[in-house]
Predict the 3D structure of the following.
Amino acid sequence: MMVRLQSISKAFAAGQPVIDDFSLEIETGERFILLGPSGCGKTTLLRLIAGFEKPDKGGIFIEGQNVVHMPVEQRPVGFIFQNHALFKHMTVYDNIAVGPRVRKEDETSIRKRIGKLLSITGLKGLESAYPGRLSGGESQRVAIARALANRPKLLLLDEPLSALDPSLRKNLRQELVEMQQSLGITFLFVTHDQEEAMELSDRMGILQGGRLLQAGTPAELYDRPASPFVAGFIGEVNRLTGTVIKQTGSVVKIDFGPELTLVAATGGHWLEGESVLGFIRPPRLAFQPSDDPEGGGRNRIAGMVRQCTFYGDHFLLTVELIGGARLSVKSHPQPMGEVLAPGTRGFVRIPEESLILFRPPPGGERRLDAREN
Ligand code: ATP
């Protein structure tokens, strides 16, 4: 176990806690991504682990040792923040060498390590350059190499790519994963970009209002979200509101409005008349064009295409169901497939196990988003 955060809390001044009874374990060599809306406490959490802040309570264990009272420079932790500052009057090489030189390591071993880091970070040939002439991506790589030069066991990254343009950002993401794998280092990476989180992570955690709502693999969070907030925060969802008709074994029948009675597989217990939120991911749905008005059936609902957009690797359809509800359907095009014209009739098939059910949170779903800004 690399990192164990045990019930840590942190409040500033007399305010409400910014980190609220937060627990998490991260394995050695894992890439763990923390995702959450602005202001949810992500940076504060990294600052606590790095040692720039002290928790009001709880333990921070790195390789079994409680580091809460250990000064920043003694923690086996490296960090890369969004606004990394390189020393402008120093070359790339000297910037990377700062940490090892402060610790008075010998120049021969520093040179060897930096040579390796320059090739891992793709900076070979730039060692004598000054930061002023580096591109955004290059200077971010220097910041990464500088953090790695101290041989941290754990690397904390706070939105390190957010200042870069989108295509560079995507490349650097892949490079970061490759670097992490070749060094076997543990990553704790913070972002508010869900695509970035899914692409980078072995596991990810969703943070809201200083609390960890759920941690798991991207697939677990996508297909088995623990709350409406998590479901809505990762990927797109269709939302339906309904009333339970009855449950038979592990199948529940739900009235989602006119001409929209669906059955859903469930591990829970639902009572007749209970309110229910039904979430469905667009790629879990299928649309089958058909002019046969009788072709319906269990979870096969008649509808009409209202909009169809071709994105190359998929179509995004807006289908208006017979009772008026609208669903987004993401489907893969056939080879040479054509865009389905608005007005095309057919059926949407909703697999029983793809309906994710929640009890409506008290005060309504929107309250969950209240801290978002
Ligand atoms: P963002 O994605 O916008 O960077 P974040 O999730 O990293 O947000 P934090 O920077 O951890 O959020 O801040 C969480 C809350 O704590 C915010 O309301 C912020 O104003 C507050 N906060 C952070 N640092 C301090 C501080 N030193 N003193 C007082 N309040 C602070």
